[in-house]
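tool_call: predict_structure(chain=1)
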Amino acid sequence: MKQQYSVEVEGLGITIASGSIARQANGAVTIQKGETTVLITATAANHLRPDQDFFPLTVDYRDKFAAAGRFPGGYFKREGRPSEKEILTCRLCDRPLRPLFPAGFINEVQVLGTLLSTDLMNEPDILMVNGASAAVHLSDIPWNGPIGCVRIGEINGQFVVNPTNEEQFESRLDLIYVGNERDMMMIEGSGDQIPEARFFEALDFAHAQVQKIIAAIKQLHSQCGKAKREFKLQQPDPKVLEMCVQLAGEKLAKAVFQDKKQDREKAVDALKDETAKAVEAKLGAAYDKNDVRLSFEILQEKVYRENILKSGKRVDGRGPNDLRAISCDVGVLPRVHGSALFQRGETQGLVITTLGTSKDAQELDGVTGGARSKSFILHYNFPPSSVGETGRTGSPGRREIGHGALAERSLLPIIPAEDEFPYSVRLVSEIMESNGSTSMASVCGGCLALMDAGVPIIAPVAGISVGLVSKEANGKIAEYRILTDIIGAEDHFGDMDFKVCGTREGITGFQLDLKIHGLPLAIAKEAILQNKEARIKILDIMQAAQNGPRPELRDTAPRIVSVMIDPEKIGMLIGPGGKNIKRIVEVSGAQIDIAEDNSGRVNIFSNNQESLARAKAEIDAITAEIELGKTYKGIVRSIKEFGAFVECLPGKEGLVHVSELADFRVNRVEDVCKLGDEMLVKCIGIDDKGKCRLSRRAAIMEQQGIPYTPTEKPPSRDRGDRGDRGGRGGDRFGPPRGGDRYGGRGGDRPERGHDRGPRDFDRGPRDHGHDHGGDRPNGGERHSSPEPVPTDGNNG
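tool_result:
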């Protein structure tokens, strides 16, 4: 889409343009790669809402079916609630934007993205992040950008920048990297057990690539960027802050340093109420009550951070590298296919596994291309009771969808391939308690629940979150501590929440969120290695509770049997109008799924073993071929003089020769069988054309335990020297009989016992051009005789 101003990103095929569309927004751009185009606008409210005390940043991205040349489904033919993919794109964009707004800026900001066109090859999520960076940077909204975003894949050992949808299927790495000119801002994605050393190489490669995007955004800003406006920053009244320090400073440390989360919260709330009353008594009712809340936020942050930086002391008594107490239990629920309870400190997750068929897979809209369904699903539920509060319940919020997606992509690399384990798998993580990193509890509990269900996972996976507390000097981090297994308060008052999941071999999932303006790559790599140490410890605890998958599925779990048939027989199995497959489902009670990839794989699903066996037998009966050496109970379909044709399988017949009907001489086939009779036969031969020779005699002898000897064909007779055969003209395979057939037959015939005498009519010469057999080659001649000879009437 052409606009007044535009720039190209060097080497990445991305175009960013502005100046002609959505000009009333504070900032607006279109960004395009290939034929995928996204419009992004950024707008800030000029005034605060009454009693507003937080920063309402809204990032919203929406796919449009018109962008793909499609109508929306449903009755109303209009886009409705956002899909999971749209919500994840919103979160992907929100997380790196948020920490770059100035502290104290709380005017509402909306960043809206709209898909205008899609080529079904280039994903719009990366374009959304880069477009949002450009739109906010070009606007007059205060913001410490720009940032750049790339997706990195690894195909055949080579890193690929922004792979297409098709290329992503071949990649063993899906790294979304967001950075500024100096540091990392955010990462998320998954990998197929990527070793940490290789992961570090991917981070370095990605950071170099985002510099091209940042340079292009700066170039566009030089053409049409706006000067930043001055907004009033929300800060507590200095008088109130000073009074809070005097009244609660020393008491706050005692309130904070307690083992249990609820004890800390109650003590801090009581101290806050006590301080608010004292401030009100001194300043009167005219003071802003939010000032006390903001002051306590500043004081708590100072208590948490200073103790960690100076002494390495955390509020629950742990050191920087310490894990909380962990316990695991499996098989905690009856009837379900698999279950596990994972607890780490005051974080507790109950995870349940459900197995289903391919028809239970989640279908996806696929507006922008990519996968159309997925057979592994993880749903994460976070009720307000898990933090001891009341609140909204019902449909999942963005946070629940985001946490579930992180756990899902971290476990997906260990799920066996569908041709090895043809089940759809659903995990449901019910958070029972929350005090930090419930998504990682979902990963650990999910892995245990999979093993409890008997899912043959490739390797166990665990996850843990590491945090950061840092101190800056001259705009750079001068002092820091990396914290293993952060609690909720350390996440809130700290600088980082870095979640990494993996096996003993490598990384399977990751997500980084920051509250500072960037994380140096060196610190990020150190955090990943510290995470690995904790991850191995957790894996040891998990494997002590459940050492590998159960050898068998639970009794309550469904069974699936997979059979392979000739793809050309799929139509035969289905039957006209689905007649055959419906009949099999009806008589067996099993569910039958035929793979849509035309591979010939048929999955039979049932909770009953007899039902599975019946369905498999029915499928075999329709699709099987007659096999050499196998015995069948067939039906006589046709009777000939030389034998009977018996149908062994539907549509598959073979010949039982008369000599193979019984162990005695059979004069007439009808003496042994008639049409429609059932007959036990054995296949004793299949020729090159696929014709089957069957034997009733062999089947009977096999039943009686008598060795079977095939009937041998009688040897051809030796005719010897038959002498002169009465002058037939010499060699039968030599010249024509007696020369010209239109002359004599080649000599006198033997006496017939009487003289036939002369004929009473003369047959005369024949018209050789009009032989009785129709036109013949060579002018109607029967052979190569040079001239026809008139037939003598006495010459028979």
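agent: The first helix runs from residue 84 to 97. Proceeding to next step.
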